[in-house]
Design goal:
32% of the residues lie in helices and 26% in strands. It is α+β, with helices and mostly antiparallel strands. The chain folds into 2 domains: 237 residues, FAD/NAD(P)-binding domain (3-Layer(bba) Sandwich); 150 residues, Translation factors (Elongation Factor Tu (Ef-tu), domain 3). The strands form 8 sheets. The protein has a 7-stranded antiparallel β-sheet. Strands 2-5-4 form a 3-stranded antiparallel β-sheet. The longest helix is centred in the C-terminal third of the chain and has 17 residues. The two termini are 19 Å apart.
């Protein structure tokens, strides 16, 4: 829809028709950001994304940067405010207001939206296209695929757009869920069920072939099935796309084993009568401290003055490198975005036009680009849509 709006704003004489297989458009907008819609972020760079070449991502983002996104939403009646992490939300804190404003603007600029019209195929011939629906067809000079990937399939993004792109000659980088909660194997002495609902700052390390592939920090949320929250969601695509990889958890982000050992030594000197559990709860939630001590068989009532060196070192190791028995993920139905998609190398970043099928434009999540949580994927959608719209009227 954004590409359609931008096209009509930039080129009022260009007729635009949007086909949506759903009866109501904008399902993903309504559920995003806890139904508040995290429209964008104050600072968005290519470093906030994974997938295709960063030079391409950077060029597209520069075509319609954050300040222009903020100005656009201000123009259509959706002023934004900043929250921690640079997240920008509508002042009304309502995703429905964002969708309503977009629909109103689409109507104002003359975009025709046809709902309940699932596109089953796009046929290219003689420099034009035939868009095929169940009961009708439409001939067009240019076509924009803005179908999303596979995440939240009930919203309509079930991968059909990727298949259309493949039939038109595009390479599809294998897809996986991204920004998706991870499952932990309860049979392996995990602690997630007793910590359900507890959140805290943490650090996750991804290990591939016993080497550190990536470290991320952020807020971790324990759930009845495993882990979620921004930290787990951001790490998820990297674990999924590295079969055989393992994850370890640092309960004290940024701290090393030596750092923790020095802290225990200093704590014992300052507060020798303090219980281990009590002291540990100054650094992590008390429920986490108790659960961890139970898992490694250390009595939380032991005083620091009588804390055996061997137990102290076992606890220090556990705090900075706790193995997570990740058994899988919650799948596309719970994923906020799709990793993989149409290869960026087959797109002209100055126009978003296909290099293999002239006249075809691809924008948003259908491409091999996925951002971290915080409004980045929406910014990719706005930027890529505007770049395409600029070229569509040429």
């Amino acid at each position: 829809m954004a590409a359609a709006i931008f096209t009509r704003r930039l080129h009022p004489d260009t007729p635009v028709v949007v086909f949506d297989g759903a009866r109501r458009v904008g399902a993903k907008i309504l559920v995003s950001g806890g139904a508040r819609c995290n429209v964008t972020n104050t600072i968005v760079t290519d470093a906030d994304f994974w997938g295709g070449r960063r030079t391409i991502i950077r060029r597209v983002l520069r075509g319609f940067p954050v300040e222009k996104t903020v100005a656009f939403f201000q123009e259509i009646g959706v002023p934004l405010h900043e929250e921690p992490g640079g997240k920008l939300f509508p002042n009304s804190n309502s995703a429905r207001d964002v969708l309503r404003a977009l629909l109103d603007e689409a109507s104002r600029v003359g975009v025709k939206i046809v709902t309940g019209a699932r596109v089953e195929g796009v046929v290219a011939a003689d420099g034009a296209f035939r868009v095929v629906m169940k009961d009708s067809t439409l001939d067009a000079r240019r076509v924009v695929l803005a179908t999303g990937g596979r995440s939240l399939p009930k919203s309509g993004s079930d991968g059909a757009g990727l298949e259309i792109a493949r039939r038109l000659g595009h390479t599809i980088v294998p897809t996986t869920p991204a920004l998706v909660p991870l499952l932990l194997d309860a049979a392996q002495n995990t602690m997630h069920k007793e910590l359900t609902g507890v959140a805290h700052e943490a650090e996750l390390t991804l290990w591939v072939d016993d080497a550190v592939e990536m470290r991320l920090t952020g807020s971790l949320l324990w759930t009845h099935f495993g882990i979620s929250g921004p930290l787990a969601l951001n790490m998820s695509r990297n674990w999924i796309r590295n079969p055989g990889a393992r994850l370890t958890l640092n309960f004290l982000p940024g701290s090393t084993f030596d750092d923790v050992e020095k802290w225990w030594t200093a704590s014992a000197q300052e507060r020798p009568p303090a219980a281990v559990a009590k002291q540990l709860s100054t650094r992590v939630p008390a429920s986490v401290a108790d659960a961890l001590l139970r898992r490694i068989g250390i009595s939380g009532s032991t005083t620091l003055a009588h804390f055996p060196r061997e137990d102290r070192r076992r606890l220090s190791h556990a705090l900075v490198s706790w193995p997570l028995a990740v058994s899988g993920d919650r799948g596309y139905s719970y994923a906020e975005v799709t990793a993989g998609g149409v290869s960026l190398d087959e797109i002209d970043p100055s126009t978003m036009e296909s290099r293999v099928c002239p006249g075809l434009f691809l924008v948003g999540e259908i491409l091999d680009v996925d951002g971290r949580i915080g409004g980045f994927n929406f910014q990719w959608a706005w930027s890529s849509a505007h770049v395409a719209a600029t070229a569509l009227g040429a």
